[in-house]
Amino acid sequence: MEFLLQLLFAMVVLFILARFGSVIVSRFGLPGLIGEIMIGIVIANLTFGDWSLMSTLGLELPPAGSHADAGSDLYMVIYAFAELGVIFLLFTVGLETKVKDLLGSGKAAMFAAIMGVVLPFIAGFAIIMAWEGNTNHALFMAAAMVATSVGITARIIKDLRLMDTREARIIIAAAVIDDVLGMIVLAIVKGIADSGEVSIANILVIAIQAILFVGVVILACKYVVPKIYDYFDERRKRLIAQGKVPPSSNKLVLAIIVCLAMAAFAEYIGLAAIIGAFLAGMLFSEYAWEWELEHKVDSITTFFLSFFFLNVGLQVDIASLTEASVLTLALVVIILALITKYVGCGIGAKIGDRELDRQGFNIIGVGMMPRGEVGIIVASIGLASGAMSSELYAVVVLMSVITTIVAPPILSKLFRKKYPEEYTILAEDRI
């Protein structure tokens, strides 16, 4: 009973503080996740003499570089909530990822995504190998650099009401393809870290597993799921025609079962659980709006996800960021993260669409910059598995936060420069 009371108290305090942080930063036009991460950092580092907020809440983090299960029992519950949050987040992203959009996104989006993966990966791997020579650290940094946050980019474009522009379609499609490629990269990197060896055979096995998993789900989305849907739809119509009441079915329950099952399967075969959750979302993407899945799952995600971003902040040791070497590395990584996405995605889009002008190049390059929650997820997996140091984890979190803060205002200005708001009086309109 005492443990339950302590857990409920910690959950109430953490959730209230997380929502408070989210609301505050949202008023400045920034994504709420940044506020939740900052609150986590404050909680983890708030101490006065022998007193700390962490000890008051009964949370004891695992030692740096060790697995998450080395923390206190109370922390393990919060950690489990955090993991469920990121699983449901990727499931939601999958619900918004239609296979037909992936397969028919065009050359510009495809090349933008590929170049936006290759250049950041090379840069991330090279900088860490040059810095300390640790292959596992370098691989996870490279995987974190590859990420692009679909949610943040899409939110900016939706707020501007410019989803129908050519650049917006390229950015969204490229970000989705980038996510799929990023999931494959993450699967390979995690597999190498778990096995402890880097070999061509090992990489091929993991890559084949990941590609097969993605391929089977895409085929199922295209050929199997529609037939299952048609079967139940025809059965329902037939029962109605016979004057019978068709049995009701809770689509949300089915979606959650499939999501958790595929996440567990992905983890079992050596891929990350979030890959299974993302692919599970794709299975339901064609019918997500009709079944109101996005709205229903969003309520679950909102609760659990706050614990994930809080946990991200809890892992950041402010003391590690006071070291000149770590701050220098963070600055270099942030600059490389911005430049490689801008150049890679811009050049890729230009290769795929020769008619793309300079303004379009700039919009696509900047639109693919935010790492947001995706880069943080990769870093969290690396830290939890012991394949990433606490210093590098802090660097990745800082990189993800800074790119998420920097990109939105620049992207808004670039979009408005090319597509002025309706009814805005321009110089050429004046009499």
Walk me through the structure.
This protein has a two-stranded antiparallel sheet. It is mostly helical and 431 residues long. The protein is globular and about 75 Å long. It contains 17 helices and two strands. The protein has a single domain (69-418), classed as Na+/H+ antiporter like fold, CATH 1.20.1530.20.
Features:
single chain; 431 residues; mainly alpha; 2 strands
Number of helices: 17
Enter the CATH topology name.
Na+/H+ antiporter like fold
**Envelope shape:** globular
How much helical structure, as a percent, in the residues? over 70%
Query: Radius of gyration, rounded?
Result: 22 Å
Give the total of beta strands. 2
Structural class based on helices, strands and sheet pairing: mainly alpha
Identify the CATH class: Mainly Alpha
Instruction: Report the end-to-end length measured between terminal Cα atoms.
Output: 77 Å
What's the CATH architecture? Up-down Bundle
* SSE string: HHEEHHHHHHHHHHHHHHH
Give the number of domains.
1
* Order of strands, widest sheet: 1-2
How are the elements arranged and paired?
Blueprint: H1 2-26, H2 32-45, E1 47-48, E2 51-52, H3 53-57, H4 73-95, H5 99-103, H6 106-131, H7 135-146, H8 150-160, H9 166-195, H10 200-241, H11 251-268, H12 273-284, H13 293-314, H14 324-352, H15 358-367, H16 372-384, H17 390-418
Helix pairs in contact: 1-2, 1-13, 2-13, 4-12, 4-13, 6-7, 6-9, 6-14, 7-9, 7-16, 8-9, 8-17, 9-10, 9-15, 10-12, 11-12, 14-15, 14-17, 15-17, 16-17
